[in-house]
Amino acid sequence: MFLIPQRLFCQRVITRCYSFDYKSYIQRRRLKLLYNNNNTKVFKMSTTHVHPFKRVESTQSIIHMHRQPFKVTVIGSGNWGTTIAKVVAENTVQNPHLFAKDVHMWVFEENINGEKLTEIINTKHQNVKYLPGIDLPHNLIANPSLLDSVKGADILVFNVPHQFLPKIVSQLKGNISKDVRAISCLKGFEVGAKGVQLLSSYIKDELDIQCGALSGANLAPEVAKEHWSETTVAYQLPEDFKGEGLDVDHKVLKMLFHRPYFHVNVIDDVAGISIAGALKNVVALACGFVEGLGWGNNAAAAIQRVGLGEIIKFGQMFFPESRVETYYQESAGVADLITTCSGGRNVKVAKYMATKHVDAFEAEKELLNGQSAQGVITCKEVHEWLATCELTEDFPLFEAVFQIVYNKMPMEQIPEMIDELEPFEVEEDDEEEPSAATTTVRS
Ligand SMILES: NC(=O)c1ccc[n+]([C@@H]2O[C@H](COP(=O)([O-])OP(=O)(O)OC[C@H]3O[C@@H](n4cnc5c(N)ncnc54)[C@H](O)[C@@H]3O)[C@@H](O)[C@H]2O)c1
Ligand SMILES: O=P(O)(O)OC[C@H](O)CO
């Protein structure tokens, strides 16, 4: 009696989800109705590969029949916060078996010509200040109350400029169940008593919830206009993972963020994607300086080459769990460095500093209408951490950016500041009298 309607329902869902996506066919799995430990019916994926030109079930077929749909809240409503909220709200409508339709977006309330920004978003369905001209789904609800917006949420998507995170987290402390799962879309670090911390680790430690990250080559205005791009989501299953169909896992996250115009790859390397995302903003400032000086593409490429080296070195030194492959294989790695250095806000701010002879804060204020160039804060945090470790000389580009932004060091001196003065060892001739085994010289 029970199985018949359930099968019919299942077939209807599968029919809706047919796809002809050739590229990802090898990742697809046939849907199987299995029994879990509690003898409840759940759907799992078998390892059978499906022919690319046959109709296949997409990952949308992952259904759980015994759990309420996940309720999702986006914390933040800036340029990227609103864009990701749009992506998420589009997916919750299309996957009602998996997600609750309505997505709350916490908005730091402000008045726009006498009207509240939340009211404008909820009536005109546009964020006129931070993402003008983009229509938002009607199931995206702007909420000015942080605590009300997270009430009953199963998944929190953090997306604010990282300087505001500590205050938000302190307000949430004690008001969040430890079963909640989170994804941080922020790019930056937290530098404090615990040393240099990933923002996902900071959220995890402060709120006692599992937290992954989303990062990629994603200029928000392009994603908002639904121009194709890729991103990387990284998430590790928590120790108290409740099981497939019952808890957030890689498949659920793919369904939450993947759109036809926003292709998601889900991996485990939270540290790798977070380090790349935070530090590329510092490199982008240096890129903006040389571009603003009119030095052209060769100089910009040199900055990116040195910058990538320092990003990888930073990761290896302070987050040995991060994987070097992530930096060149994932959208969150070198691809993000390239896109940010081509057209991001950090590069714009730095170019403006070079051409208008203003400081970073003035440039940000004059150019960005309340948005944030995160490299300005990150270069200071990185400097503070490296100074604590007495390692500033090992990261000459990061240090040069800090000195230019905070100590008025002339940006024209970048080439000298980042010149690689690596010591190298010269073998003594075997036949000569033994003296010191090696001599250290500088190039
Ligand atoms: N914009 C992009 O293209 C992009 C893309 C990928 C990642 N990111 C990252 O996403 C994160 C969020 O960036 P964004 O572009 O959404 O923000 P943004 O730069 O547009 O910043 C504006 C936001 O900050 C909020 N704000 C201002 N004062 C505040 C306060 N006192 N407390 C709390 N919030 C306040 C504003 O209300 C607004 O929502 C950043 O770490 C950024 O690096 C941005
Ligand atoms: O505009 P930026 O410089 O903050 O960069 C935006 C994104 O991080 C690019 O992926």
From TrEMBL:
EC number(s) from the headed UniProt entry:
1.1.1.8
Give one GO biological process term: glycerol-3-phosphate catabolic process
Catalytic reaction equation(s) = sn-glycerol 3-phosphate + NAD(+) = dihydroxyacetone phosphate + NADH + H(+)
Q: Which residues form the Glycerol-3-phosphate dehydrogenase NAD-dependent C-terminal domain?
A: 269-415
UniProt keywords, alphabetically: NAD, Oxidoreductase
What name is this protein filed under? Glycerol-3-phosphate dehydrogenase [NAD(+)]
**Superkingdom to which the source organism belongs:** Eukaryota
Pfam families of this UniProt entry?
NAD_Gly3P_dh_C, NAD_Gly3P_dh_N
Its cellular-component GO annotations read: cytosol; nucleus
